[in-house]
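Researcher: I'd like a candidate sequence for this fold, 281 residues long. If you have to choose between options at a position, lean toward the conservative one.
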């Protein structure tokens, strides 16, 4: 089993990297992609926890904004974690998350909700990349909503009155920097309409021309028709087709390895990195 998109408590998941690896091993997963939001902070612990037959594709899910303001998430895998430009990009995105959160909270307070930055910080694990899921957890703790899923279907949806955009690289910039760092890029859940504004089919040609390597087709936030459209787009553009869980632990319903990538598609994707960086034991 190959699952290329997972999160730990180094961003907005609930498992430590070690706990995630242990779960993956117990399930018989052969290759796991660790892709915390805008950070590589979990890489070392994950690599130290790997054992037996599991291998790791280390990476990050990079928060991007297109020129028209569409939120895009780009998975970077197998890049050099010491690449200076890559780490500068990730740090810049992380730095922009605090003022963004403050603006969202201010909007909620203006609407009469009893929520504060202190509440969010209390819900964020130490060292984790700040994100809206931590705000969702704070809203749950204050009994304003019942779950993270409810939050992202309503108050924290990209079309919500409380949405605030963030400083971020364009998808083209992210692809360029990932490629320069020797890695491969896969656009995550690009047709997940429940999250808000999505890309158009015509947008993929430009991304492919810039060096996009793959498309995350099989994901729970994309219905069968959307998956079919994405599979056709990937085939037409010669892009790798991936499937993944987008696992976040107990924070979301997504089950580890509920969607997977086929071995032949993984081999095609890995071959496009500038060197073999899979962590094996």
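Model: Candidate sequence:
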């Amino acid at each position: 089993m190959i699952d290329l998109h997972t999160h730990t408590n180094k961003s907005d998941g609930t498992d430590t990297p070690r706990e995630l690896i242990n779960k993956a091993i117990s399930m018989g997963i052969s290759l796991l992609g660790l892709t915390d939001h805008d950070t590589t902070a979990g890489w070392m612990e994950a690599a130290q926890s790997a054992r037996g037959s599991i291998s790791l594709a280390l990476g990050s899910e990079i928060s991007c904004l297109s020129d028209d303001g569409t939120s895009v998430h780009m998975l970077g895998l197998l890049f050099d974690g010491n690449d200076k430009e890559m780490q500068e990009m990730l740090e810049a995105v992380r730095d922009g998350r605090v003022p963004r959160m403050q603006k969202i909270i201010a909007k909620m307070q203006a609407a009469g909700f009893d929520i504060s930055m202190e509440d969010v910080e209390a819900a964020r694990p130490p060292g984790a990349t700040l994100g809206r899921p931590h705000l969702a957890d704070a809203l749950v703790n204050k009994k304003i909503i019942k779950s993270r899923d409810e939050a992202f279907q309503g108050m924290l949806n990209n079309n919500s009155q409380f949405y605030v955009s963030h400083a971020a690289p364009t998808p083209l910039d992210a692809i360029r920097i990932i490629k320069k760092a020797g890695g491969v890029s896969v656009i995550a859940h690009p047709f997940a309409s429940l999250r808000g504004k999505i890309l158009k089919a015509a947008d993929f040609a430009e991304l492919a021309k810039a060096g996009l390597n793959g498309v995350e087709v099989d994901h729970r936030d994309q219905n069968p028709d959307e998956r079919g459209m994405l599979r056709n787009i990937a085939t037409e553009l010669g892009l790798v087709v991936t499937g993944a869980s987008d696992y976040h632990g107990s924070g979301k319903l997504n089950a580890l390895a509920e969607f997977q990538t086929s071995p032949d598609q993984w081999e095609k994707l890995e071959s496009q990195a500038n060197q073999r960086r899979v962590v094996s034991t």
